[in-house]
Amino acid sequence: MDNISQKNHIMHAASFDNTWREPLSILLGIGRAAGADFIEFFLQRGNYLSALIENGQVTAINPALSLGAGVRVFKGKEDCYVSTNDLSFKGLKIILEKALNIHALNLEHNRIIPEINLEPLRDYVEIKEKSNWLAQCSSVRELCDSLMQMNLAQQKSTKHLQSATTNGFRDWQEVLVASSEGIFARDIRLNQSLSTQVFCEDGAHRTSSHIRSGDAANPNFFRKINTQEISEKLAESSGHMLHADFISSGNYPVILANQFGGVIFHEACGHLLETTAIQRNSTPFLDKKGEKIAHENLTAWDEGSWENGFGSIDMDDEGMPAQKTLLIENGILRNFLCDRAGHLLTGHPRTGSGRRQNYTFAPASRMRNTYIAHGNYSKEDMFSSIDKGIYCKKLGGGSVGSTGDFNFAVEEAWLIENGKVTKPVKGATLIGQAPEVMQRISMSGNDLEISAGFCGSVSGSVYVTVGQPHIKVDSITVGGR
Amino acid sequence: MSLQIEQLVKETKKIASDLNIEKFDIFGTEKEESSASAKDKKPFSLTSSIRSSLILRVWNQNQQMGVTRTSNLTTEGLSEAFDLAKSSAEFGSRENIYEFSPECHTKTMINHEKKELKELTPIQELMHGAISAEEKILNASLDFKSVPYNKVSEAKSSRFYFNSEGAIKIEENQISFCYFYPLAHEKDRKPRQSGHLELASSFANLDILTCAEKAIKKTKDHLNYTSIQNGKYPVVFSPEAFLDLVNAFANFMNAQNILDKKSLCHQDSIGQALAANDFCLVDSPLHPLNMSKSYFDEEGTPTRELTIIENGVLKNFIHSSFTAKKMGYAVTGHANIGAKVTVSPHFLYIKSSNKNIEKKDYLNENNLIYVESVSALHAGVNELQGSFSLPFDGFYINDKQKVSIEAATVAGDFLSLLKDIYYIGDEEFAVPNGISPIVWVKSLSITGL
């Protein structure tokens, strides 16, 4: 053991390449020799940059560098996770020993330490030609110029403007996974996002409106922003909402717009289909696989590697290649989203869904690009089926609790009267019970679109895509004034 | 803690000198933490970490400032961070010049707490605590099938600030907490969940079993539930719920938000009546009951008690050194450094200035809503618009009966709510996010399922 800790391991600090094979193999061997059933190292390096433009001025350039590692050790069905910033051999060995100690495991003196036979480096950086991504991204100057152009367009387009904010970020992340089962895999992820917001005030009337777009695996994202289209949409939305009346609370039939409307499925159902929820006994769908849990018109997917999807990954944070997972087919629950711990504890097959924000979190089963598949109805079919209801054109964030009760905010809502969209209303919140509402999604449109978002849960905040066509919910409770 | 600040000061000075950087400052943290949770009377999730990170600001010859955050504190990592901050300074504002705090000239090391930090408790003890509490909860009622959210944790942390002029500030803290949120399933009824969070200065002082008992009581209180008719009701907020709401709309006291025109207030709002005339709000970072007290902000400015609202009238905004200079006020010790310095409150303390008012007990009222906790603030609060529509756990009070409400939202306008406060309880409660009595509001919209 002492010989090992004194050995001068030379791992390349600047890249998670093959130089990490030997030291990680030895550490994994130490863990196995001590009696752990499974050990997994996760190394991560990050290079993040964000820029903020407010009312025509660059007010913040925020670069951030990160480097860290975590080790997860399983003994039977129990696991623990220890993380550090110290990526030296000694630093990694300290966290391994700490994790072994948590399981009351120690390496006996003179015990033979097996070297774990890791697979040849499965390098998605080489396979998918990602090594130049960081260099190909917009420079700080280019980023500022793109955002400034956007911000000036917002100012020009928006009436009663108090402030116009434009924010953009690029998040580059290199990860390496090595486990005692022989996994040795490296990947680079690139996520970029633009967020624009206007705040308008006219006497006592106030409103704010925002649009976010995001992309993964595309270094040219900021070079292809449609400034005109975004600023006009923002101005139109804030213009409608500034003088809108508050909605009266009650139960209404509701049409949810496509794109970010998919957040209803994400919150009301998606989280409850993660095996993390089964592990905590906190999903009403726990034993419903193969049963009808939604309206027969509803089919839903979670895709790991949708081209440029904000939640796309080539491998998950446990080194498993991403998959396309059918969640619900014509109302029948087909699969849960499952990571390693979920598989061990619930028996569901792994789906390449083990994700985490960074090395400070153990992975958990998480959504990636989740959407309701398109149906056959046109928007006109849906609107004409409603005498009095609500059109939720733009949704905000939401959440779901262990009881299945969910809620989310509506940023832009309109009244539907006699089949027609009539006037804007503000202050609406949709609330309901997931199992009940899933049975009430009676119409799916033919206009599936997706939208970028962030999802916070037990393993931190991860990038996701939500999506759906226009859908009709026969009845939902709308909180208002 | 393992980080040697003196060594870090020496090392960063050398790196700065090699890169011809004359002016810089650094705020950093180091944290060692362990936590455990239980499931079915067995260990469920055990985590431990030792982490440090810092944010570095450098100024160029034109007084433009650039920043970099990093968790790579090796010599190579620090050099890379200095280099990156120097490059980003070229994009720093020429109009809005950031400077060192006028109240941070301490040349010596200060550990304000001067308390001996204990070694962190072995994680096995945290685990036993979590398992015993979970067992106690599961045995308390046949309806309690699981405790999906439970954790026992202890952490030691240090915060430090130093700058190229020789100011150095360091403080250390230790904190422990636990929470338990049981899920109860009654036959033919919807599942119900509630729970409790407890904080203490260390694991040794943490009363885990009392926390479990409070979680049991709160969850049992919600078993017998009823739906609520939609409409307007007088609403009584618990201390936690009211403080959550005030923190969610803290832009009204935030000087940076005011300069950015992203606040419910304006520069000339000082002196104006914002709330009911006996409503007082103080930010009290050094209050003895604040478990996470900080003696200096991220610019090294000493923190202090600051009156925000007195007798309903707005008295002060919270400031960084930049906003204070820009608006002509003294610094208040509320800065968070970054490429753009932001400000935020520390530990809010709400009280009434009218001690002679006749005491009220909400249990004696009719047709009233008691809001125990609000949730989903990230989704249900529109802080720029001033409106909120939030799911809550609470009770319907009528005929001396207190019945849990099935599922509902409370909605309103924050500034109107402050003016509609008609009674502030005389008993103050210390909760994790501040100190407050219960607060009564005339009328808010309630929507039930």
Automatic annotation (TrEMBL), chain B:
One of its GO terms (biological process) is proteolysis. This is TldD/PmbA family protein. Residues 25-89 form the Metalloprotease TldD/E N-terminal domain. InterPro entries: Metalloprtase-TldD/E_C, Metalloprtase-TldD/E_cen_dom, Metalloprtase-TldD/E_N, PmbA, TldD/PmbA_N, TldD/PmbA_sf. Residues 231-448 form the Metalloprotease TldD/E C-terminal domain. Belongs to the peptidase U62 family. GO terms for cellular component: cytosol. It comes from Fluviispira sanaruensis. It comes from the Bacteria. One of its GO terms (molecular function) is metallopeptidase activity. Residues 124-223 form the Metalloprotease TldD/E central domain. Pfam families: PmbA_TldD_1st (PF01523), PmbA_TldD_2nd (PF19290), PmbA_TldD_3rd (PF19289).
